């Protein structure tokens, strides 16, 4: 349970995968995942009924559209963080591409509990192993 | 529960406090805190019996001494992450000073469940409110 034996360098971790909207599992903290994801273009409107979702922008800039309940969009430049509360429909996007660290309970599905039709470029997943080359 | 209404910029957040070893509560994710802490010099040997502890170095470099069970030290440069497993005695330090993002359950005490004598420069706390000036 938990723990990584040696530190993980974010630059090396993001160099290990190219696919956007397909989070990698970097570490486990109790029953939570630390996930790393590339954002590029638009994700899909979705909601997590039972969990908040934490975003920290490592590189680039992202936007998160929210139905709060009126639609609004928050902009997260590099080095900023935000939490989408449980039960809030949201759609992340990144016009220019970005690298993002996420914190959420293990098993949380990337497209939530309810979502619009998932486009082909969005991976509906609970996260993939981070395969570091060295 | 959870949520911050607007994004928090890490540069502004760290500009809002100077005290080392005195974590600020930047956000809440379900029953977990996202904490921001300045590291400078040595913390104290301590253990969290029931929780892992996540470290991400935002600026500077830190070291974490571990009794694993033999003593070893991991070095975390800027942009690296590490999880200290529950039950592992550890002592964070930063010779040159650092800014660190932590993830741990709300209520987790900064000096753990068991610790050496806490020096005056270490704040035994479950975290303080982050007071942003603007």
From TrEMBL, chains A, B:
Name of this protein: Mannose-6-phosphate isomerase, cupin superfamily
Metal-binding as UniProt keyword: no
UniProt feature coiled coil, ranges: none
Pfam family for this entry, one: Cupin_2
GO molecular function, one term: isomerase activity
Record field: transmembrane: none
Keywords: Isomerase
Organism of origin: Actinokineospora terrae
Superkingdom of origin organism: Bacteria
InterPro entries attached to this UniProt entry: cNMP-bd_dom (IPR000595), Cupin_2 (IPR013096), PKS_Associated_Protein (IPR052044), RmlC-like_jellyroll (IPR014710), RmlC_Cupin_sf (IPR011051)
Stretches assigned to the Cyclic nucleotide-binding domain: 13-82
Lineage: Bacteria, Bacillati, Actinomycetota, Actinomycetes, Pseudonocardiales
């Amino acid at each position: 349970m938990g723990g990584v034996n040696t530190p993980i360098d974010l630059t090396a971790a993001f160099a290990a995968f190219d696919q956007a909207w397909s989070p990698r599992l970097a570490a486990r903290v109790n029953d939570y995942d630390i996930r790393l994801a590339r954002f590029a273009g638009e994700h899909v409107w979705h909601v997590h009924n039972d969990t908040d979702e934490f975003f920290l922008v490592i590189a680039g800039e992202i936007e998160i559209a929210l139905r709060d309940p009126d639609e609004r969009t928050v902009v997260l430049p590099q080095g900023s963080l935000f939490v989408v509360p449980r039960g809030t429909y949201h759609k992340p996007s990144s016009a220019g591409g970005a690298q993002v660290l996420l914190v959420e309970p293990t098993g949380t599905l990337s497209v939530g509990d309810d979502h619009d039709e998932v486009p082909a470029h969005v991976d509906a997943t609970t996260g993939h192993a981070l395969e570091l080359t060295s």
